[in-house]
Each structure stands twice: as structure tokens, then as C-alpha cells.
Amino acid sequence: MKFLVLNGVNLNLTGRREKEIYGGETLQEIEKELAAFAEEHGHSVEFFQSNWEGDLCAYIQEAEGKYDGIVLNAGAYTHYSYAIRDAIAAVSVPVVEVHMSNVHAREEFRRNSVLTPVCKGEILGFGKYSYFLALESFWL
Ligand code: DQA
């Protein structure tokens, strides 16, 4: 199977910002490990990150027929982007929502996700391993 790991706003700073929350590994390092993990299981994965909401919507739209699943960490857009929510609802490719931190143990505004209702599932709170668990969920 072929998957897309899609990261949204500020995730390009992973490894440099709030390391006590998001860890010290860069997004590129995590992506490299994810690619190896998928390959070990006979799957392939492509990566994209953008700070722009419209780019994320375009990638979701273009995923139709191209990928078997999307692992999506939309960053702060999770909490208010109806545009990303509608893009997910518009395609048949399943999306698993991911967060590295336990958003329920943080600020109040992080407790609500407008994306979860249109996602296949949600994995959060396991640091970089949230991405691994989300990917794995597609072939278990
Ligand atoms: C995050 C949680 C969001 O609330 C936050 O805005 C992020 C990262 C996470 O991976 O824990 O940028 O999605």
C-alpha cells in the first residue's frame, strides 16, 4: 500500500520548537524512520509539509486514487480549519488524525478537533510514535 504523511502548520519546526512537548528529532529525521518502517512492512510512504491551509487541502484532494491512506497532523489547523475538514470529507481516502502531544492535557482550545468527525480515527500523545501507530493502523 502507498501512504501520505501530511504535516501542517509549524510542524517543520519539530526538533527545534518546544522540545519538551514535541521532542528533539527533526521532522526530516522522523520521516526517514517512518519511510524505513513502512518499507520493512512492504509499504511505501510519501511526505509533505506546509504552513498553508490551502496547500494541505490541495494535497488531500489530490490524494484521491493515489494513496491508500493519509496520516495527518494538521497542527493548530486541527482546532479550527473547516476547509481541511471539508477536504477530508470530500475524498474517499481514509485519514487518520495524529498529534504528538496529548492535546487533552494541554490548553482548553486544543481539546476540540474539527477534523476528528470526518477522520477514520485519531492517535495522540505518543510523541513521534503517534505517526508510526497511525501508519500501522492501515495494515493491521
Ligand atoms: C499538535 C498539537 C496542536 O495543538 C499544535 O497546534 C501543534 C502540534 C501535536 O502534534 O501535538 O502544532 O498537532
Give keywords.
globular; binds 1,3,4-trihydroxy-5-OXO-cyclohexanecarboxylic acid; alpha/beta; 140 residues; Rossmann fold
Structure overview:
The protein is an alpha/beta fold and 140 residues long. It has one domain (2-139): Rossmann fold (3-Layer(aba) Sandwich), CATH 3.40.50.9100. 33% of the residues lie in helices and 19% in strands. The protein contains five helices and five strands. The protein has helices spanning 19-22, 27-40, 53-62, 82-90, 129-137, and strands at residues 2-7, 44-49, 69-73, 95-99, 121-124. Strands 2-1-3-4-5 form a five-stranded parallel sheet, with helices on both faces. Strand 3, helix 4 and strand 4 (95-99) form a beta-alpha-beta unit. Helix 3 (53-62) packs parallel to helix 4 (82-90). The longest helix has 14 residues, at 27-40. The structure holds 1,3,4-trihydroxy-5-OXO-cyclohexanecarboxylic acid. 1,3,4-trihydroxy-5-OXO-cyclohexanecarboxylic acid binds next to loops.
Secondary-structure element series = EHHEHEHEEH
Portion in helices? 25-40%
CATH homologous group name = Dehydroquinase, class II
The portion of residues forming beta strands comes to 15-25%
Radius of gyration: 14 Å
What count of helical segments does DSSP give?
A: 5
Our measurement of the CA-to-CA distance between the termini, rounded to an integer number of angstroms, reads 12 Å
Give the overall shape, derived from the CA principal axes.
Answer: globular
Q: What oligomeric state do the depicted chains represent?
A: single chain
CATH architecture, by name, is 3-Layer(aba) Sandwich
In what order do the strands lie side by side in the largest sheet?
A: 2-1-3-4-5
- For the record, the count of structural domains works out to 1
Structural class: alpha/beta
- The chain-level mean pLDDT equals 98
Task: Report the uncertain regions.
Answer: none
Which CATH class is shown? Alpha Beta
Strand count? 5
Sheet of most strands: 5 strands, parallel
The hetero molecules present are: 1,3,4-trihydroxy-5-OXO-cyclohexanecarboxylic acid
In CATH terms, what is the fold-level topology?
Rossmann fold
